[in-house]
Each structure stands twice: as structure tokens, then as C-alpha cells.
Specification:
Layout (H helix, E strand, L loop, with lengths): L1 H6 L20 H28 L1 H7 L2 H24 L6 H26 L6 H10 L2 H8 L7 H21 L6 H37 L9 H18 L3 E8 L2 H8 L1 H18 L5 E6 L2 E7 L3 H14 L12 E7 H4 L4 H17 L5 E2 L3 H12 L1
Parallel strand pairs: 4-5
Antiparallel strand pairs: 1-3, 1-4, 2-3
């Protein structure tokens, strides 16, 4: 991984280099962005292949015998129709498996075309210009492997997509075993492997830049914790997992008390310092599985998967006791906290769960600040009365 880091200097954090090898545990935001990019590029290549595959039939008509041209034209017609269908009917819904399917179809069409045309051309003894043009068909695998380089793929993904193309080259050679120039074949195959290696590095490099851009989008520039957009992605995913499995999921809204007065009296730089210190302190007291989000201004969200109300409130009490740093005049920074939990509050979606925590945070402020407000019996009675109205 250290050697790999040198190939993409300054773009990735250390814990993100594993993402270049395998798509396992990619952030949902990154997965959707990557899937959308892959499908868009599949459509672009499908359009180019659909047009160029049909147009090249005119060249074949000039240089090849009519019977050979006719058979090749039929193959080209089918391939062009397949490319056009891929262009028109590939859904771009941010689903990675849908992107895989589109890519597999994109590369399967010319790979099958290569094997079919290669076997067809093998039945003809061509000379001169016809022989020169027929050689061009043998370069199709090179074009396909080079085409992999425009996709932001991991090492594992690129190897999976390049393997069928290399296998097709071997199959074509096996069918022409007796007349094969083996030294030339070995050289071509070695070149294909080298191009595959270049495509691997190009795809991983693109993915590295995309990871860097996504990190900028999901991370708050000031504090380094998750931004609101990134936090929404995480919360939506955790809510979906907890809802399916029946697991607990707690969220807590933290709002710094009297933060506006810090900005007014000491300036925004002093306020920024307070926020940075607060985020560092809170992050240090959270578990590895917990997620801290800067929701906006001095408002933060803590997402706590597999956490009951009791354990969430205990953790938040410890956080309150530890404090959130100090103001420029060396007085303690305090926060009002509202906490909600999926199974107890029976939230219908993650936005409802968030709203409950937000309302409790405001109740904590109304009750005197620097405290935690969670689910209580009084609130349960009020909810029951509202439900009966």
C-alpha cells in the first residue's frame, strides 16, 4: 500500500488505499457517484461503437470478397444493434451492480464480435490490401483493454473485466492452432497483458481522484468531520440496516450554547477555533463505529449504530462531563443535547428520527441548556394523546 500511495500522491488518506483494491465497504455516496460515472461512459462508448461498427462495413465492401463482406456485415449489424440497445436502455440509477451489468454487456459485444470475425477471416486467404485490413480485426482486444482505462475501477474490478478479453484471445488462437504463428501470438498476448496493467493503474488513478473529490464533498472543511451531505448518506444507510435487522440506532443533536456571543465578541476565527476543538474532543470520546457530523454552524449530529437509549445517554453524560473545550475567555463550552432512538421512538424514516432528536435538543435549551433531553414518560403520554385526537 505504501508503494501504491506514491502513485497518487496527496489524494488519499491512509485508510482509503484499500478502496483502490476492492469495492468492499465503499461509502454509499462514492458508490453511487462511481456507478453513475461508469454508466455514462458505457453509454458514450456504446454510441461510438454503434456508429463506427456500422460505418466500417463500407471499408470491408471495398477490400473483401462479397461473401466475406456479407457475413461480416451481418455480424456488424447485430453488434451495432446491441450497442444501440445498450445506449438506450442502460439505467443510470446509481446502482453499482447495474453499472457492472452495463460494462459487462459493453465489453461482451465486441469480444464476441472479435471471436466470430477472427474465425470467419481464418477461412479466407487474403493478400495485399485485404490482408492488411483483416489484420486490423486482430487489434480489437487491444482497443477493448485500452478502453478499460476510462473507467474509475478498483484493481479487482479491472482484472475481472480484462480476463474475458484475454481468454477470448486464447480461444481465437486455439481455433487456428495449425496455422498459428506462435512467436507472434506470444508477443501479442504479452502486449495485451501490459495494456491490462496500464488500464489497471489508470482506472485506480481515476478512482483515487474520485475518492478525494467525494471526501471533500462529505467532509466538513473546517472540522474534518462529516459534512451534512455526508452525514445524511451515513444516516440513511444506518437507518436502512437497522430497520431490516431490528437493531437499535441512536442519534443525538448537539448545539453549542451561546455560540453566537463568541463570534460577536471575539470574531469568527475564535469561533472557528472553538468548533475545531469541540469536534476533536467529541471525536476522541466516541466509539469507532460512531459518526460525528457537522450539521450546520454550531450544530452537530452524533450517529450511534447498535446503541440503545440507555447506552447512548450514558455516553452523552460522559461527554457532558468531559466538556467541549473552552471559550476565548477560558470559560467552559457547553452544549444542549437531544437524543432519539429508532426502536423506542418508532420513527418511520431517518428524517423523522432526526426531527425527534432536534425537538429534544431545543427542549434541552428551554430547560436551561448544558443538559441532555431524551425520551421520557411525559413525552410518551403527550404522543398518545395526540394520536387519539
Amino acid at each position: 500500500m505504501v508503494r501504491l500511495a506514491d502513485l497518487i500522491p496527496g489524494e488519499l488518506e491512509y485508510n482509503e488505499y484499500n478502496w483502490l483494491v476492492s469495492p468492499y465497504r465503499h461509502l454509499g455516496f462514492l458508490t453511487r457517484r462511481r456507478a453513475s460515472t461508469i454508466v455514462n461512459r458505457v453509454r458514450l462508448l456504446a454510441f461510438l461503437f454503434a456508429v463506427l461498427t456500422a460505418m466500417w462495413s463500407g471499408v470491408d465492401l471495398i477490400v473483401f470478397p462479397f461473401n466475406l463482406w456479407f457475413n461480416l456485415a451481418l455480424i456488424r449489424l447485430v453488434a451495432s444493434a446491441a450497442f444501440a440497445s445498450l445506449l438506450l436502455y442502460s439505467p443510470n440509477d446509481g446502482n453499482l451492480f447495474g453499472a457492472y451489468r452495463a460494462m459487462a454487456q459493453l465489453f461482451a459485444i465486441p469480444t464476441i464480435f472479435f471471436v466470430a470475425s477472427y474465425l470467419l477471416l481464418g477461412h479466407y486467404r487474403l493478400t495485399g490490401l485485404s490482408a492488411a485490413i483483416s489484420v486490423g480485426y486482430a487489434f480489437l482486444p487491444f482497443v477493448l483493454l485500452a478502453g478499460l482505462s476510462i473507467f474509475p475501477l478498483t484493481l479487482v474490478e479491472t482484472m475481472c473485466f480484462s480476463a474475458p478479453i484475454l481468454i477470448a484471445q486464447i480461444i481465437a488462437a486455439v481455433f487456428r492452432w495449425t496455422g498459428m504463428d506462435w512467436p507472434s501470438m506470444a508477443g501479442e498476448f504479452w502486449l495485451l497483458v501490459l495494456i491490462s496493467g496500464v488500464s489497471v493503474l489508470a482506472g485506480m488513478s481515476q478512482l483515487g481522484f474520485m475518492i478525494g473529490l467525494v471526501r471533500q464533498a462529505v467532509r466538513d472543511a473546517l472540522t474534518g468531520v462529516f459534512s451534512r451531505s455526508g452525514g445524511e448518506e451515513v444516516l440513511e444507510l444506518q437507518f436502512s440496516i437497522a430497520s431490516r435487522s431490528g437493531a437499535k440506532l441512536a442519534v443525538a443533536f448537539l448545539d453549542l450554547d451561546h455560540f453566537k456571543s463568541i463570534n460577536d465578541q471575539y470574531g469568527h476565527e475564535a469561533g472557528d477555533t472553538v468548533l475545531v476543538n469541540m469536534a476533536r474532543i467529541v471525536s476522541r470520546h466516541l466509539r469507532r463505529s460512531d459518526v460525528l457530523v457537522r450539521w450546520g454552524g454550531e450544530e452537530f449530529l452524533v450517529i450511534m449504530p447498535d446503541t440503545s437509549v440507555m447506552h447512548a445517554q450514558a455516553a452523552l453524560v460522559r461527554l457532558l462531563k468531559a466538556g467541549f473545550g473552552v471559550t476565548p475567555r477560558n470559560t467552559p463550552v457547553t452544549a444542549s443535547i437531544g437524543v432519539a432512538e429508532l426502536t423506542v421512538d418508532k420513527a418511520s424514516d431517518w428524517k423523522s428520527l432526526l426531527e425527534i432528536a432536534d425537538q429534544r435538543m431545543y427542549r434541552a435549551k428551554q430547560n436551561g441548556r448544558a443538559q441532555i433531553c431524551g425520551y421520557d414518560e411525559k413525552e410518551r403520554v403527550e404522543q398518545a394523546e395526540l394520536a387519539m385526537q
